[in-house]
Design a protein that fits this description.
Radius of gyration: 25 Å
Helix content: 25-40%
Mean pLDDT: 77
Strand order of the largest sheet: 1-2-3
Strand content: 15-25%
Distance between the termini: 69 Å
Structural class: alpha+beta
Largest sheet: 3 strands, antiparallel
Number of domains: 2
Shape: elongated
Number of strands: 3
Length: 115
């Protein structure tokens, strides 16, 4: 069964594709184009829906379709840092940081001259 796929490209556009799953892998059946505006995205999505439905009979429920927006597609280009509090303090490198903190605390408790 085919479905419509929206993917953000490296340039920031949204590629609209018709795809299907085959043994857990995505197989691209058709690439309809890349949208740079909401209007272009709407046109490409309508073409993709027509391709997916094809000759199938569809029930008409008179439900208004929600307008698609470029902002609805995830943008992998934005780099967001994950704070340590989200991983319980034990994220990537969390154990090493905890070890260094313990070593620093032990060094501060030792008697003697400090630098």
């Amino acid at each position: 069964m085919a479905y419509v796929r929206k993917v953000r490209t490296a340039s920031g556009a949204v590629a609209v594709q018709v795809a299907r799953k085959d043994r857990g892998r995505v197989v691209i059946l058709a690439h309809l184009g890349s949208a740079h505006t909401d209007a272009e995205l709407g046109i490409l999505l309508e073409q993709a829906r027509e391709m997916v439905v094809g000759g199938q009979a569809a029930l008409d429920f008179e439900v208004a379709a929600r307008a698609q927006s470029m902002a609805d597609v995830a943008d992998f280009r934005a780099q967001a840092l994950i704070r340590a509090s989200h991983t319980g303090g034990r994220g990537a490198g969390g154990a090493a940081r905890a070890y260094r903190r313990c070593q620093l605390a032990a060094a501060l408790r030792r008697p003697g001259p400090r630098l």
